[in-house]
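Recap slide: Mitochondrial adapter protein MCP1 transmembrane domain-containing protein, sequence and predicted structure.
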Amino acid sequence: MSNLGTTPRPFLSLSKAYGLLTKVQTTSAVVFSTFAAIHGVQLLAANVGGAYLANHWLMVGRPFYQDEHMEGILVTGSAVTHVLAGLAKLGIRLYWNRNNNLSAAITQPNENNVLRYHGLTGYLLIPLAGLHYYLVRTLPIDYYGDSAFIDFGYVAWGLQNKPIFSYGLHTALVVAASYHMVSGIKYVFQRKSRTINDLSKVPQNGNSADEKIIKQKQNHWVQKGLITGLSLALISSIVIIGRDTKKIPLRLDFAKMYARII
């Protein structure tokens, strides 16, 4: 049989590539959430015991995610993988949108389970989290050779002496992170149970579509409530750390490090 005039089928179609990237993105999000949960608890401890308790839990929990090998997996590795997968998916969506004939022929994946600004907060987190990492990890390593001994006093110095920059950065970071992660958690769990739910569905008469819409709206309100509560709690922790920290022995060094940014 002649192969003239035929186009070889690609090894991996865009739809399959998009689905694979979604799995990579979901897995990396789950891995990063381990670090985010630990670090979030460390910060939230300030609401209970002030800067002292927050610093205590910072030192206790830090070995779990700043280990020589674990940091590259739980923190930087998972974050970079998540971002690259997301940007690749964005490129595919843009390609689909620019090719109307492809859009008509391909059923694009439905990701409406996330909140409206899930993607936007994800893109905002790239510079916000990157700047935070540079501030609290890269600069201390460049200056001291390590950052494992630095506590929340470093952040407190910035809150006290560079309030616009420090409060602006960390407030935007915790709000965007809270929104993105709370929105994404529901999507992750729904993806895991979607196959089972689809197989167990039984056709029903009545207002099943309306009930689904109502339930989705209720879930969104619950998510928004969680985002608001978590954001306020984290912002409260930041304020407490900034006000509760009185003595900062390394303040002169911190001033030099902050000077490299602002």
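Residues 105 and 130 are 38 Å apart (CA to CA).
The chain has nine helices and no strands.
(End of recap.)
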